[in-house]
Amino acid sequence: MKINKPHSIAVSKILCQGISLGAMTALLASTVVFAQDAAAPMPAASDQETVVVVTGFRGSLQTAINEKKRSTDMVDVIKSEDIGQFPDLNLAESLQRIPGVSIDRDGGEGKQITVRGLNSEFSRTRLNGLEALATTGSKDSSGGTNRGRGFDFNVFAADLFNSLTVRKSLSAEIEEGSLGATVDLQTARPFDYKGFTMAGSLQAGYNDAARKTEPRGTFMISNRWADGRLGALLSVAYGTRTVIENSTNTTRWENAYAVSNVGRFERYSTDGGNTFINIPQCTGAGGVCNTTEVNAQNPTLTGEAQKLARAEHPRIPRYNHFETAQKRLGVTGSFQMRPNENTLVTLDGMFAEFGANRDEWEIEAISFSRSGQGLPKTDVYNYTIDSEGTLVKGSFNDVDIRAEHRYDELTTTFTQLNLTWDQTWSDRLSTKVLIGSSKSRQDNPEQTTFTFESYNVAGYSYDYTDMTHPVFDYGKSKSGCTTDQACYWTYSTSTANGDQSLIRIRPQSVTNAFSTAKIDLKYEVNDNLTFKGGYASKSYDFNSTEYGRYTSAPLTRDENATTAGSSLLASTINGNIAGFSQSVTVGGNTYLIPNLNVIRDTFNYDCRCTNSYGTFTVNNTNSSSRTGNRIAQEIDKAAFIQLDFKGDIGSIPYRGNIGTREVETNLTATGYVGGSTSSILTTVKRRYKDSLPAMNVMIEPRENLYLRFAAAKTMARPTLLSLTPGGGSINTTAKTITTGNPYLEPTRADTMDFSVEWYPDKDTLVTLGLFNKKLHSYIQTRAQSFKLSELGYTPSDLGETSDVSYLVTTPVNTAGGNLKGYEFNIQKPFTFLPGFLSRTGGIFNYTHVESKIQYYTSATATTTTQADLLGLSPEAWNATLYYEGKALSGRVAVSYRDGYLSQLAPGSSADFWGKNETMNVDAQITYKVNKNLTFILEGINLSNEPDNRYISYNTAQGNTAQNLLYDYGTSGRQYYLGLRYKY
Predict the structure, then answer these.
(1) Is 722 helix (H, G, I), strand (E, B) or coil?
(2) Dihedral (Cα; 203, 207, 211, 215), 10-degree rounding
């Protein structure tokens, strides 16, 4: 099948917070830290034993300044001691110290980055010179399983790396695929050290929410032999961490008629529930009943009844309790050989495993999202509808309550192996050959959800007057029981009173694999001109799988309890519901929820079989799971030529580069497109080319005053998930198709950067950078009409007798927009201050970004809404204050990020999901006992910053709320106490 390409249609206000380190708890056993003292780059053979060792925080800052000065491109660098000394759990938290870089956190720790307003999908990460991708799973409110191109930095411990470089401008020799930045991660190598080096650390970590002490440690050993011509290095980082999050969530907000023309409320009372008035049912079609046209559909729906019909209520108001057991292991190995002064061979290997098994417990009012059986029947009284059309408070009778236990077993395994051969052929000619591959597999072999129900509860109430701390009362069941009693709950196989109970089994995985081979050539024409050229071939393979529990015919959905033998399962549970439940306290109240461990042991629901209790088989072609099954391969071939130049204009030195990169992208994408009774496995191939010229120029009009300018054409390819056909459905009755779009074009942009950099001394840096990017397109989901032949279908494939038109909903390229901004950075030791204050210093950076996109807030919308680019925080800043004495050192780091939009059109007529502003505070204190032994005390997320996400509306119903609760929760402060040792 072939699918044709569808036609495209000021200074930040700084908040002050009082912070207390609190009591740091832990016992410490002796051992060693991976101090990662790094030398200058690998010297030439003539002086390869002359290695300058840089130690201390200020020393690492000096090294980073030197790297920035030497680079022709616009880069920011963090060197080894910088990372080792910052109180960071992972690489993302290290990267947020760089100007223009902001991070998003999940479970209290950094996960993905945004660079100059462009989210993680627009940046690329290279590990030891090769593009790589590591992905993880997360809570649904944080995005769930990562099936995009954004790199999840929480996979890796920061201790494994000795250099991080963020490239903000591009040259022709740098791989394509990035609009935001190219992030280079470099692990340690034996030639970074003079000789035998051994270092390590052991720390005890304590989280004040989990109230649990757990280990974190690192170890590195490196040596050189044969007069320094052979070297080997091994490093290991390991740590465990328990994260407990208590939160509240709504999933979305909806109107009473959001799903059908049957409203969710049956009666209302204006006298506190003493008397009730029936609400006439709308005779229109679904969502029309929510709009101002409702009177044309049903003239009797007026006054309070009409206000209630249009008011937004929480779709699933609930408390959440998450317990995540994390384990992070990283191993790097490197072997280097210099058989002669002209040859250097390096073999790098890396293994990382990040596990995050999560238990999720929820109690929720499920009937507010119900679209079928028993509607309408809920009565509402003591309610408040605010000026934005939101039902922020109310009491209700006949509400169905659900207790839910979900368990996710999550593991990300990352491997990489690459070989580098640097060869000097003559005084002027040298080459570099790099081959390697990496593979990241995010595995979720068990994702199981089990529920208990309580039907027709009286006296349920919610109060969202304070959106971040809503108050719930779950009333009493018909038997007069409360949520902490077994008699409140039942396990139901019937739809007579409402939704059936769930046994949802949904295992899934995502694999990303890269294989790269490239050769670069450098020829020094003369002292001022250097010619560079190269060729690269890269294969990127993406495989997403998802399975679901279904019974009978393979495409008949049955996540509920109506399976063979389910009556035995139900009678067993209901006969001893207390034995199949456990107690959890959330929001100050205690509830019973299903105990999955006991249920699993009793009913063997993870057998992938049919037993006496039910059918627990899974398949990947059913209508619910099919969207998660996609395969794609991208083969990219690129060649570049580049001229590096330098010289003097009078007394003014200059240097720069100019060149072009020619790229051919070949895509093969496969996915299922189909309805509930049939599906078509579709494969599409396509090819496109890009020409990407780039230029970087630097002049030094005065000593240590640099002016830089860069311009380039850049591109970022769409996610492979959106490129694969399938992931949707075909409805031959409604004549609709929902699918991915293999013919999506990349987001292409013209970029310009200008910076002024002043280096008054070796420790001081003052920079101002200006940037502008013109995005030629953006990707949004639209609905357009096409004949089946235009889509590559034979009408008979779909049971049609003629070439009829279908309404196709698919991602397409829409109009882009301009992105512009500036960033300011200052780094200065306060040596001018008296006494001990002369050992202090500070680092501060500030970024301001602007970019507006015209969004279609639904696939069928004919008008657009202007809003910020997804992922863009208009203002962000980082500040670090440090003290470095002979023995005692310490630093406090504060990171602020404005709120931002995270998702377009998430459902229920909402325009956007977003996240409110965050300010995170981290701190570290070290005491050096001697040149080998240092004690460490550090605190992470000392402000216990909440994960505060919102949802905004601007719909035909007149609901204009812009900051309704989506999800709000905290994960606690993290403390570490330990020591590091270096020999």
Answers:
(1) helix
(2) -20
Tokens representing 483 are 């949520």
Report the C-alpha gap between 863 and 861 in whole angstroms. Answer: 6
Tell me phi and psi for residue 70, to 5 degrees: -70, -25
**Contact yes or no for 73/92 (Cβ under 8 A):** no
Distance of alpha carbon 507 from alpha carbon 25, whole angstroms: 38
Looking at the DSSP assignment, which residues form a beta bridge with residue 818? 774
- The residue assigned the tokens 């990267």 is 95
Picking from 71, 314, 327, 346, the residue whose alpha carbon sits closest to that of residue 186 is 346
Token couple for 248:
């509240």
* Token reading at 616: 């627990």
For the range 282-285, what are the long-range contacts, defined as Cβ-Cβ under 8 Å and sequence gap of 24 or more?
282/257, 282/309, 285/261
Structure tokens belonging to residue 26: 């832990």
Strand 630-649, strand 652-674: pairing: antiparallel
- Contact call for residues 511 and 572 (beta carbons, < 8 A): no
- The angle, 0 to 180 degrees and rounded to 10, between the axes of the packed helices 596-603 and 566-575 is 130
- Token pair listed for 120: 């993680």
Are 938 and 72 in contact by the 8 Å Cβ rule? The answer is no
What does DSSP assign to residue 305?
Answer: H
Tokens of 878: 């980082």
Q: Are the C-beta atoms of 282 and 257 separated by less than 8 Å?
A: yes
Mean pLDDT, consecutive 10-residue stretches, the chain (983 aa), reads 37 32 28 32 39 61 90 90 63 88 86 92 95 89 84 90 93 94 94 92 95 94 96 96 94 82 86 91 66 59 83 94 95 97 97 95 91 72 94 95 95 97 97 98 94 94 95 93 95 85 91 97 97 98 88 40 63 92 85 94 90 85 76 96 96 97 95 62 89 98 96 94 77 81 93 97 95 96 83 73 88 94 96 94 96 92 92 96 93 94 89 94 93 92 93 81 93 94 88
Q: What is the pTM of this model?
A: 0.89
Q: Which residues pair with 396 in a beta bridge?
A: 380, 460
d(CA 157, CA 89): 6
How many Cβ atoms from other residues are within 10 Å of residue 739's Cβ? Answer: 24
Q: How far apart are CA 437 and CA 441, in angstroms?
A: 14
Task: Locate 88 and state its tokens.
Answer: 């960071």
DSSP string, 438-489: EEEEEEEEEEEEEEEEEEEEEEEEEE-SSTTS-EEEEEE-TTS--TTSGGG-
| 3-state SS, residue 973 | coil
Residue 696 is encoded by which pair of tokens? 């970087």
Q: How many CB atoms lie within 10 A of CB 411?
A: 18
> What's phi and psi for 86, nearest 5 deg?
-80, 145
Considering all CA atoms of the chain, what is the largest pairwise distance in Å, rounded to the nearest integer? 96
